[in-house]
Amino acid sequence: MARPPDHPTVHVGKIWRLILADLGLSRLAVLRRAGLPGGLLDGDGARISLDDFYALWVSFEIEAQSPTLPLRLGQVEASEYFDPAFFAAICAPDMTVAGQRLGEFKRLVGAFSLDVDVQPDATRFTYRCKYRPDLPVVIAATELVFLVNLARRATRHRVVPRAVCLPGPVQDKPAFEDWFGCPVDEGESAFFTLDPMEAQRPFLTQDNRMWQSFEPGLRRRMEEARDALSTRARIENALLELLPSGRAQIDDVARELAVSRRSLQRRLSEEGT
Fold first, then answer.
1. How many angstroms separate the first and last alpha carbons of the chain?
2. Residues near 223 by Cβ (< 8 Å), separated by ≥ 6?
3. What residues pair up with 191 in beta bridges, in sequence order?
4. Which secondary structure element, helix H or strand E, spans residue 48, and what is its range?
5. What is the pLDDT of residue 46?
């Protein structure tokens, strides 16, 4: 039976095959430990539930037996995987725009989100799961390392965050603090902050022509993801964006989704919500 579209799923496939091969790990051993089919990553891969995705990461971490696994994963050469979202970010003018492009893509396509909060004294990049309050440290740390590494590669400058926070302890904290160049704190969320100068430091990899070539494909994938979501899921995603500004009335949501209030109510009723 098909999984209802408002039940979050995550696609796993080629990237996982490459990463496991690069780290010298047995694909079958990782999948079996997670209780997943041995052929899951074959071909184009498959979509799995968020629970299974979390189990896959736990298995991956155990099999790797490396306290600095996120440092290794976050610095993997992403261009080898030909990820359009990565190229959209790397050809941005600076880290703020790169984060916003990645955030827009993540909000519609996956179960995770990247929020970029620009303030006069600092820019904060927050990574979270949209459907669960818990976020495994290995996932959070890998993503933050990836983002900071992206800023460093694109600027050819050792960008140092002002602060880094993870939703739990890492095994080799000194190694992470040495890599980030600042203390790594433990809190309720996963984020790092950059000074305005670092957040706006020009990317030497900026390429408007490349962005124009990748943007249509990204937009198409985001629209396909949007169409696959139920009205309830679309409302939940819209509320995540609207609540920080205090706008959470039905008219606000209807405007955000470009539908009338009556249509929104009708669609919810049709879904039994």
1. 21
2. none
3. 126, 165
4. strand 46-49
5. 87
Measured distance CA(137)–CA(192) in Å, rounded: 14
Token pair belonging to 35 = 């209780």
- The whole-angstrom separation of Cα 262 and Cα 248 is 16
Distance of CA 129 to the CA centre of its chain: 8
Give per-residue pLDDT as tens, 183-216: 999 999 999 999 999 999 999 999 888 777 767 7
Other CB atoms within 10 Å distance of the CB of residue 227: 9
Q: Is residue 11 pLDDT above 90, yes or no?
A: no
- SS3 state of residue 200: coil
Average pLDDT over all residues of the chain: 85
Bridging pattern class, strands 123-129 and 112-118: antiparallel
Neighbours of 178 (CB within 10 A): 12
Residue 15: half-sphere exposure toward Cβ, Cα within 13 Å: 15
Q: What integer pLDDT is reported at residue 234 of this predicted model? A: 67
Give pLDDT tens digits for 219-256. 666 665 555 556 776 677 667 656 666 777 888 777 76
CB hemisphere CA count around 56 (13 angstroms): 23
Residue 6: CA atoms inside 13 Å, Cβ hemisphere, count? Answer: 12
Maximum distance among all Cα pairs of the chain, rounded to whole angstroms: 56
Return the closest-CA partner of residue 199 out of 153, 145, 165, 161: 161
Residue type, 35: G
222 Cβ neighbours under 8 A, 6+ residues apart: 104, 105, 108, 109
40 closest CA partner among 28, 23, 58, 22 = 28
